[in-house]
Amino acid sequence: MEARLLAYAERQAPRYTSYPTAPHFTPRVNAGVVNGWLSELGADDTLSLYLHVPYCRQLCWYCGCNTHAARRDEPILDFVETLLREINLIADASGNHRVVEMHWGGGTPNILEPHQFARIVGKIAQCFDISAIRHHAIELDPRYVNAEKAKTYAYAGVNRVSLGVQDLNERVQQTIGRVQPLEMVQHAVDLLRAAGIAEINMDLMYGLPHQGLDEICHSVRLAAAMRPTRIALFGYAHVPWFKKRQRLIPEAALPGTAARFEQAEAARAELEALGYVAIGLDHFALPDDELTRAANQGRLRRSFQGYVIDAATALIGLGPSAISTFPQGYAQNVSEPGAWGQAIAGGELAIARGHALSGDDRKRRRLIEQIMCDFSGDLAPLGGAQACGRELSDLAPMIADGMVRIEQDRIELSDEARPLCRVVGMAFDAYAHRAAARHSKAV
Ligand code: SF4
Description:
With 443 residues, the chain is an alpha/beta fold. The protein is built from 16 helices and 19 strands. The protein has helices spanning 3-9, 31-39, 74-94, 114-127, 147-155, 170-175, 182-195, 213-225, 257-273, 290-296, 337-345, 359-374, 389-394, 396-400, 421-426, 430-442; strands at residues 46-53, 55-56, 68-69, 98-106, 135-140, 160-166, 199-206, 230-235, 277-279, 283-285, 301-303, 306-308, 314-318, 323-326, 329-333, 351-356, 376-378, 404-407, 410-413. It has a nine-stranded mixed sheet, sandwiched between helices. A three-stranded antiparallel sheet has the order 14-15-16, with helices on one face. Helix 5 (147-155) links the parallel strand 5 (135-140) and strand 6. It starts with a helix and ends with a helix. The relative contact order is 0.14. Iron/sulfur cluster (SF4) is lined by residues 56, 59-60, 63, 65, 67, 106-108, 141, 164. Residues 56, 59-60, 63, 65, 67, 106-108, 141, 164 line the site of iron/sulfur cluster.
């Protein structure tokens, strides 16, 4: 790998599923503010619902998600009851809106028993209009998929499933604390397809311990042979000071930055050779997939669910740590399930923090989204290239290297710079810039 690329790849940059990113949220957005935002939704406004199930049967050592181990069923029973109350609270504050998208994430959404899942969907159908739902997606752990659950999802209208696969080499699986042989993943796929769910995504990871180019390419080939309609390829983020369970990952077995970059590139080449189209930073899809068509037509958007096609007026996050996006700004629920449950039991939304968007935020958010989705963007709303002196001076080395081009108030990334779109986006992040300035002064 060239030294100049390595220097950029080593920089830390957010994934920009929101702008500003969650670390810049503050308690100024509280339950009162969010009740106001909910009541301001118009009769024709549509909703997307995100349901966060904050439990897993056991914790994988590499995991960076907001989740807790639940070996007993009691916490899950409490979670279901509280979630039903939270749905009521949201509906009371917002009215009976049309829901066009639903997405279950976690944690492990398939930790829920079929009757619990069906009860929650029933409550949503009671409180909102879900007759014209376009996408109903769920993230599943292949180790806990069975025929009854697959049929329940299909019956409830689930039309897209995302399977956590990560890697298909036994040694890597053992080192990350998640053993799921290929046959188990294939069985989950077969059950879902037999139930009538054809849209299957698989999440893969590079940068894991004991992964080399052979291992990542082996996993990619095995995953692609199951012909999922989409594959997401994420880089493992090793942050043991933030996620204590990652201390179980042997650091000496982790690939370095140059090796990670090469793994991402090798996996990308392998996927393209196997008929997948690269989309945005880390997604791949079959040529006839909706996401591919949207990318070709410049209709990709960026949200907390990653790359999406069209956004509803508001995304409502339900469950501990879930984040909502309103036209006015962002709001995040408290992360700890006990505190979330207490607030809801008291008849209050469990909002911990958020951010009300300013005019400047909206312009920067759109530009960063364009860079993340289309690898190009329009500087005119920020006043054009002339008005972006600080931002373009941050990018000066990339401009000098020919990786970023500025022409008539448009910014364009070269093919080589595409994996670095987060770094380019960060140049336009006013909050990251201010944080850096504070840090510099402190030193
Ligand atoms: S990776 Fe998935 S299954 Fe594993 S602990 Fe994290 S959320 Fe749970």
